[in-house]
Specification:
It contains 2 helices and 2 strands. By secondary structure, the protein is mainly alpha-helical. The longest helix is centred in the middle third of the chain and has 69 residues. The protein is elongated and about 160 Å long. About 4% of the residues have low confidence.
């Protein structure tokens, strides 16, 4: 061993530098080329994709129709609820008006008869209104 700056444990690097391999290494790589797909196989794959797209489109259309029907049902339910509220309001108005009928009739001169039923004149001679003794009778319900 050579004496290098006072250290005997250090190897001489000059010999090592001469023995180093080059910085690049020549390698060979095997390249395999795949054969292109035959036309029939390409058509098969393309038809499979077209079929899948058609099925998906059909399902989407069916789903859209179902959504439309459900939306119409929802709108009809809302409309029915609003009509029911209006019917209840009109029923209350009707009851209030029915309560006012006797008061309004009394103001206009209506007098309720003492007996219930239909009143009509009956003459004793068979002539209408010619006798002095006309009788009024009441038919019961």
């Amino acid at each position: 061993m050579a004496y290098t700056r006072g250290n005997l444990a250090v190897k001489d690097q000059t010999a090592r530098r001469e023995q180093q391999s080059p910085k690049y290494r020549e390698t060979t790589k095997v390249v395999t080329r795949r054969a292109p797909l035959p036309v029939r196989e390409k058509l098969l794959y393309m038809m499979t994709v077209v079929f899948c797209v058609a099925v998906m489109g059909g399902l989407m259309m069916q789903n859209a129709e179902l959504y439309d029907i459900k939306r119409q049902m929802y709108n009809l339910d809302k409309e029915i609820q609003s009509v029911n509220v209006e019917v209840k309001e009109l029923a209350i108005q009707k009851e209030m008006l029915e309560m006012k009928i006797p008061e309004k009739a009394a103001e206009l001169g209506y007098v309720q008869p003492a007996e219930e039923g239909f009143h009509y004149d009956v003459s004793s001679n068979g002539e209408n209104g010619s006798s002095n003794q006309d009788q009024v009778t009441t038919a019961q319900k």
